[in-house]
Amino acid sequence: MDILTILFYLVTSVIIISSMSLIIVNNTVHAALLLVLIFFNSAILWLMLKAEFLSIVLVLVYVGAVLVLFLFVIMLLDLPIKEKVNQKLYLLFSLIISLIMFIELYMVIFYHDFSQVAEISHSSEFNNTYEIGLLLFTKHLFSFEITALILLVAIIAAIAINMTNKQRALKQDPARQIEETKQSRLRIIKDKDL
Amino acid sequence: MITMSHYLVFSALLFCISVAGIFINRRNILLLLMSIELMLLSVNTNFIIFSHYSNDMTGQVFVFFILAVAAAESAIGLAIIVSLFRIRNSLEINLINKLKG
Amino acid sequence: MESLLLSIPILLILSSIITGFSSKLLNNFYSGIISTSLVTLSFIFSIIICFNIYSSDNLILYENFYSWISVSNFNIGIGYLIDKYSAAMLVVVLLISSVVHLYSMSYMEKEKEYKRFFSYIALFTFSMILLVISNNLIQLFIGWEGVGLVSYLLIGFFYKKRSAIHANLKAFLINRIGDMFFILGIAMIYTAFDSFDYRTIFLNINELDLDNLKTYFGLSYIDLSCLLLFIGAMAKSAQIPLHIWLPDSMEGPTPISALIHAATMVTAGIFMVGRLSPVYEMCYITTNIILIIGASTALFIGLIAIFENDIKKVIAYSTISQLGYMVSALGINAYTISFFHLYTHAFFKALLFLCAGSVIMSLHHNQDILKMGGLKSKLPITYICFLIGTLSIIGFPLTSGFFSKDLILEVMLYKDSTISFVAYVMLILGALVTTIYSLRLLFIVFYGDYRGDNANSVKEQSLIILIPLIILALLSLFSGYSIKIFIDMPIFMWSPSEIKYQGLLPFITHGIFSPATLSLLIGFYISIKLYKEKTDFKFLKFFLFEKSVAAIKSKYKFDELFLYLSLFMKKSSLYFSNKMDIALIDGLIVNGIPKRINILSTYLRTISSGYLYHYAFLIVLSLVIIFAVILVRVL
Q: Cα(C635)–Cα(C629) distance, rounded to whole angstroms?
C-alpha cells in the first residue's frame, strides 16, 4: 500500500465523516467550519488528480471568500442555537432515499468498470495552469466573458436585494422639527365634553 | 492502487450525503445552502476525475466556470437569506411555507 | 316570366311585412286593402305564368338562383321548378288566398288585431308558395315548416282563449311528429341520390342501383324513404291517426279554416307526394299503405261528421274525409287525379267554410247547428252558395266534385287489385257517408224552424262577404270541366296517367250510371228521411248499432290514445330523468367526477405542504425513480 493510497483513504474518510456531521449539526458556525475542512481536503484530493490550479482556486475562492462570507452572515444575523426537534422519520426517509441513490450510482460505476481506465502520466514540463489558461482564452473566451458578466450581475443583485427602504429607518427631520408649533402638537379638550 | 472507480464512488457518496442533507435539514436555511455547496463540490470532483483520466483539459475549464457561478449563486443566496431574516426574524425552514396556496 | 314568378313570393312577404310592422302608419282598412291587392296581384301573375306554361308543350321553368349552403358536394340552393303541376297549384293557392283575403276584410273588421291577422295570412300564403315553387327538398321543407308555424299562430289567433291555445299547441305537436319522419325521409333521399334537387333526383331515379341499397324491416330503401315522407304528409294532410289536430284547428277564425283546408296547409302533404311522384312510382309496399290509410280515413272520419254538432267541425271532418280520397288516389299512383280532386275540393271546401263563416257571423258567433235552422229564407244567397258547395262535395252530377270523385273511383277500379277493390268499396261507402253528413248539415241549418235567439237580427252580410261566396260557387260548379287538363297533366317530364279518356260526354254518362250515383241516391233518401222529415227508424235501435255509434261519437278515442301515449312518455321520461339524468349523468358523471377528484385531492393536497424540504424530497425521489428506470433499461 503506497503513500498515495493511504492519503486517499485518509482524505476521503475525513471528507465523508465531516460532511455527515455537517448535515446533522445544530450550530451553523460548526457547520461552516466543517465545510472549510471539507474544502481543504477536497483541495488535497484535487491535487492528487493533478488539478493543481483548481485546487488552489478552491482554497482561495471558496475557503477564502465564499465561506468567509458565510461566516460573516452567520455572525451578522446572530442566529440562536435551538434544540433539535424530533425528526427521526425524516431522517430515516432521507437516508433510505440517499442509500438507493448511492446504490444506483454505484451500479453505474461498476457496470462500466472504470477501474480499468489507465492513468495518463504527463512529462515534467506539463503545466496545468498554462493548459487551462490556453483553453480559457482561446476556445472558451466567450463563456469566460459571460462568467464575468454573471459575477457582475450577482454583485448588483446582492446589493439590490439588501437595499433597505429608507422610509423604514427612524430618522429625525430637523426642518420639520423647527416648523412644528404648539397648535399642531397640542389639542385642548374641555372637561364637560368628557 | 487507487483507480478511477475509487474516486467516482467517493464523489457519489459525497453527493448522496449532501442530497440527504437538503431534506434532513429543517432548521436552518444556511445549512441548506451549505449542502448545495457540498453537492457542487462533488460534481466538480467528478469533472476533475474524468478530465484527469481522459486527459481532457476542458473538464477543468468547466469546473472553473462552475466555481464562478457557484460563488455568484452563494452570494445571491446569502443576500436573500439576509433580507429574509430581516422580514421574518428567523431562518427556520419550517416557517417558510408561503408556497402553499 | 322568371321575374313575374319571383315577384309572387316577394309581393306576399312584402304584404306580410307591411301589415305586420306598419304599426300606426296604416289604419286597418288600408292595410287590408293593400294586403288584398298585393295577393290579388300575385294571383294575376300566377295566372299569366300558368297560361304560359300551359300554352307551350313541355315548358319547365327551372333555376337555382341562389346557393344557400355549399360544402364540397353538399349543396342547398334556393330556386324554382315550375311545371304544369306546380303552376296549377300556384293558381289554386293564390286564388283561394286572395278570395280569403277579400272575405277577411269584412269578417275580421271588428277585430282589434286585424293587421296581425293579415300579416299572418300573407305569411301563410308565402310559405305555401315557397313550398310549391321549390326545386329542392330543403326549400320544400322550409315552406313546410313555415306553413306549420303560421298555422300554429293562426289557430291560436285568439290567444286569450284557452281552448285556442291548446288547439294550436296540439296542431303544432302533431305536425312535429310528422316533421321528424319527414326529415328522416329527406335524409334517406339525399343519401340515395346525393342531392336535394328534384331534377337531379328525377333524372337519376332510373339509374339508381336498387339492389345495392339496404332494406329495412322488409321494406326496400325507396319504400321506406317514401313511407317516412308520407308520414310527414299524414300529419300535414290529417290522415289517420295523425288527423286529430284538424278538428281542433277550428278554434281559429273561420277564414283561416277555409285557407288551411282548401289551399295552404292540408294540401301541402298531397302536393308533396305528387311532386315526388317519380320516386313514389318506385314503391311497391308504401303505395298500398297509403291506399289503406287514405281509404280508411275517407270512410271512418266521415262517420264522425254525422254526429258532430259544431258547424265548422262538421266541415273539418268532411275535409279529412275528402283528403282521404286524395290520399287514396295517391295510393294507386294516380297523382294528377288526386290533384284534380284537390283542385275542385279547394273551391267547394273554401266555399263551405266561407258560407259557414257567413252563417256564424249572421248568428252572432253561434256555431252550434242545433240552434240554427230555417235560415233558407233569411240568408238566401248564403243558402244557394252552401247548396252548391254541398252538391259539389257529395258529387252531384255535373258539379265539380262529381268529376273528381268519380274519376278517383274509376281509376280505383281500373287498378284491378284486391287492395284497391277493398279501397274502392270503402270509398263508395265513404261517398254515402259524405252525402249523409253534408245533407244533414244542409237540412239542419237551412230547413225547418229557427231554433236560436234574436230571430229578427239575422240577415245577409255585406257584399264583401258575398262576392267571395259567389266567385267560389261559380268555380265549384264549373271547375270540374277542366278534367282533361288534369288527366293529361305531366308531372315534371313524366306522364303517369294511363287512363283512356274518351271525352266529357261519355265520362258524364258513365259517371251517372256508376255505383257512386247509387250511393248518392241512398244517401239522399236516408238523410231526407232522418233529418228533413225526422223519421224515427225503429229498426236501427239494436245493440251493436248503438255501440258503434258510441264509438264514432267518441271519435274512436284517438285523442285519448294520444293522451295516454303522451302520459306514458311523460312517465317514462320522468323515470329516465330520475335514473339516467339525475342518478347516472348528474350523480355519477357530472357531479360524481368532481366529488371523487375532491376526495382524491384531499389526500394529494397534503403533498403540497408549502415546505421546501418536502418539494426537495419529491424532486429527489422522482430523480431516483427516473434514474432507476433508465438503469433498468440500460443494464
A: 10
Burial class (CB in 10 A: 0-12, 13-18, 19+), C21: exposed
The count of structural domains within chain A is: 3
- Its domain, for residue A144, covers 126-162
Instruction: Let me know whether A55 and A24 are in one domain.
Output: yes
Say whether A16 and B79 touch across the interface (CB within 8 A): no
Handedness of CA C279, C285, C289, C295 (dihedral sign): positive
Q: Right CATH number for B4-95 from 3.40.50.300, 1.10.287.3510, 1.10.8.50, 3.90.79.10?
A: 1.10.287.3510
Where along chain B do its domains lie?
4-95
To probe the interface with C, which of A87, A100, A102, A109 has the most C CB atoms within 10 Å? A100
Interval C461-480: pLDDT, tens = 777 888 888 888 998 888 88
In a mutational test of the A interface, the residue from C612, C623, C627 whose CB has the highest number of chain A CBs within 10 Å is: C627
Tell me, yes or no, if A153 comes closer than 8 A to chain C by beta carbon: no
Q: Does A8 touch chain B (CB under 8 A)?
A: yes
The domain locations on chain C are 2-553, 591-635
Question: What pLDDT shows up at residue B64?
Answer: 92
**Is residue C613 within 8 Å of residue B22, measured between CB atoms?**
yes
List the subunits that have 3+ CB pairs under 8 angstroms with A. B, C
Distance CA C242, CA C324 (A): 12
A176 assigned to some structural domain: no
Residue pLDDT, tens place only, C90-105: 999 999 999 999 888 8
The residues near B23 (Cβ < 8 Å, ≥ 6 apart) are A90, A93, A94, C613, C614, C616, C617, C620
> Is the pLDDT score of C496 beyond 60?
no
Check A97 against C617: CB less than 8 A apart. Answer: yes
Q: Is the pTM of this model over 0.95?
A: no
**Could you tell me if A142 lies within 8 Å of chain C, comparing CB atoms?**
no
The reply to whether residue B93 touches residue C617, judged by beta carbons under 8 angstroms, is no
Alpha helices in C363-399 (DSSP H): 375-378, 380-393
Dist. CA A138–CA A22, nearest whole Å: 40
**Helix (H/G/I), strand (E/B), else coil: A125:** coil
Q: Does A62 share its domain with A14?
A: yes
Residue A37 is part of a domain; what is its CATH number? Answer: 1.20.120.1200
User: Rounded to whole angstroms, what are the CA distances from C139 to B64, C41, C83, C151, C228?
Assistant: 82, 24, 17, 18, 18
Q: Please list every residue in chain A whose beta carbon sits closer than 8 Å to the beta carbon of residue B82.
A: 73, 76-77, 161-162
Contact call for A58 and B7, based on CB within 8 A: no
Pairing of strands C74-82, C61-71: antiparallel
